[in-house]
Amino acid sequence: MDVAVFPADHSESLASALMAAGIKTERVTDLESEFPGDAGALVVELGNEPLRRLRMLEALSVESPVPVLAVIDATQLTMVEAAVGITDFLMAPPDYAELRLRVRRLTHAAGTDEVHHFKDLELNVLTYQASLAGRPIDLTYMEYELLRFFIEHQGRVWSREQLLSKVWGYEYYGGARTVDVHVRRLRAKLGEERASWITTVRSVGYRFG
To answer: pLDDT tens, position by position, for the chain (209 residues)?
Structure first.
């Protein structure tokens, strides 16, 4: 996921959340002259200049259809609800998992479901729904993220450390056991016939498919 971030000197809490979420960013100092046209979304921190930045977003919405995620505090909620040019908003300080989810939804085409398939398993990336043979399965957020990652990277062996970095984020310190626990839960939810989709590679990690 590639996004533009405004202002360039955004807060440390937002910078940390973006890094932990594994989101590639390009800093923007001027929305009128520097906005990168290939960015999938724009993340804007309203900060201590909310009205000025909302006016800039309104002007931008006329020129560009890029989806905008605003990071706000509680005092800015009312003005954001009535604002033009904001697609979604997130309360500060942002949680990296929620930030990743919101950005992923924004970077997909509006109204278009992106569905991943593996045999009789189906994952809808936008709605975060999963089903097996047409029947819904109940997954936690991180179980879903791990399964999605596996489906998108079939056949390759991933170490526990790599999975922690790619799925949980660069600043997650839960340890390798976190991966093992989630794999065990996924296998249980996939059922006995499909649990072998996730293969344990001894002394290395896991492979899907």
So the answer is: 578 999 999 999 999 999 888 788 889 988 877 666 677 889 999 999 999 999 998 888 877 778 899 999 999 988 888 888 898 899 999 988 889 888 887 876 444 457 888 999 999 877 778 999 999 999 888 898 899 999 988 999 999 988 888 887 755 556 778 899 999 999 999 999 999 999 999 989 999 98
Domains, the chain, ordered by start:
2-106 (3.40.50.2300), 115-208 (1.10.10.10)
Contact 11, 92 (CB under 8 A): yes
Tokens read off for 150:
């596996």
Number of separate helices (H) and strands (E) present in the chain: 7, 12
63: number of Cβ within 10 Å: 10
Q: In 46-114, which ranges are E strands?
A: 68-72, 88-91
The verdict on pTM exceeding 0.70 is no
Structure tokens at 166: 């790619």
Produce one character per residue of 140-171: b if its CB has 16 or more CB atoms within 10 Å, e if not: eebbbbbbbebbebeeeebebeebbeebbbee
